[in-house]
Write a sequence for this structure.
């Protein structure tokens, strides 16, 4: 990443306004023109520096349901369980972590009953219990990573 | 045409063109004003947090990702949780239930360039929580097994 790209990534994490030409104002602040900013953003998405550019939805407030699940999976069985878990479209993220509870995933759906049903199906298909850790409160402010 | 149509149309991202709301409007068969109005309302009530770039932590050099989990006294977590969430380096902070064999009720995600940086940040959280935190652990991520983002299809 060059210096301009770093400034773009840092600035655009804060967001663009809802106006007809939202990139024009952001470009002005960065001292570049609108077309350059858009081109740079496309490049940053293409090379994987950005995973996404767009609205960050709050699933809860949209009426969605989600929860964080954890499993303790023996090493010899990890890949099999991973394939089963990842095959569910309701599984949004899945991380391997260094802990006795070594598989952590988020289940998301438009309805809460579906979340519980998927959790039970994962338990049945893998043979391991799934710990359900739904969010009770959100103390979220948001992160700006210095690029 | 509902908000859910708009959500579906933008889950993968906003069109990267000079007039992205007009482009969405054309795609959905509504006016640009209606698209902008819906986004303004969803921003105002928190259904949309912001319209922004989401960086890949690894690509920015943040290779260490630690989920710090804390056993915080129930009577203190309501006051201390928001203060932990307000720390600049905490990306997500939630209260979750304790359960059998899992005493931790506060989760704070910390990113750093390496583990030493994460550990220094975790020490800052520990200082903030003080005696209200009886125990904590840091669960480092080893591998991303799946990351498709939110899908409400």
């Amino acid at each position: 990443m060059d210096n301009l790209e770093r400034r773009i990534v840092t600035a655009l994490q804060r967001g663009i306004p809802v106006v007809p030409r939202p990139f024009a104002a952001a470009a002005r602040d960065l001292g570049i023109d609108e077309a350059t900013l858009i081109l740079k953003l496309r490049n940053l998405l293409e090379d994987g520096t950005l995973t996404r550019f767009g609205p960050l939805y709050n699933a809860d407030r949209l009426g969605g349901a989600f929860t964080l699940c954890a499993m303790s999976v023996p090493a010899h069985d990890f890949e099999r369980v991973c394939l089963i878990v990842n095959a569910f479209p309701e599984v949004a993220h899945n991380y391997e972590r260094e802990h006795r509870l070594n598989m952590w995933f988020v289940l998301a759906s438009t309805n809460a009953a579906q979340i519980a049903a998927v959790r039970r199906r994962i338990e049945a298909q893998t043979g391991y219990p799934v710990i359900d850790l739904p969010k009770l409160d959100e103390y979220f402010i948001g992160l700006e990573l210095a690029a | 045409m509902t908000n859910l149509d708009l959500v579906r149309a933008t889950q993968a991202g906003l069109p990267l063109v000079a007039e992205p709301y007009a482009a969405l409007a054309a795609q959905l068969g509504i006016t640009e004003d209606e698209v902008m109005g819906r986004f303004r309302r969803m921003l105002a009530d928190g259904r949309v947090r912001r319209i922004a770039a989401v960086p890949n932590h690894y690509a920015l050099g943040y290779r260490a990702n630690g989920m710090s989990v804390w056993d915080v006294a129930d009577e203190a977590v309501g006051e201390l949780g928001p203060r932990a969430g307000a720390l600049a380096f905490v990306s997500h902070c939630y209260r979750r239930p304790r359960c059998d064999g899992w005493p931790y009720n506060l989760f704070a995600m910390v990113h750093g360039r390496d583990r030493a940086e994460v550990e220094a940040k975790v020490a800052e959280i520990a200082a903030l929580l003080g005696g209200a935190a009886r125990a904590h652990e840091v669960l480092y991520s080893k591998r991303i097994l799946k990351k498709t983002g939110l899908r409400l299809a």
Summary: The two ends of chain B are 15 Å apart (CA to CA). Helices of chain B lie at 3-10, 20-28, 32-44, 74-85, 115-129. Chain B is about 35% helix and 30% strand. Chain B touches chain A through 74 residues (CB under 8 Å).
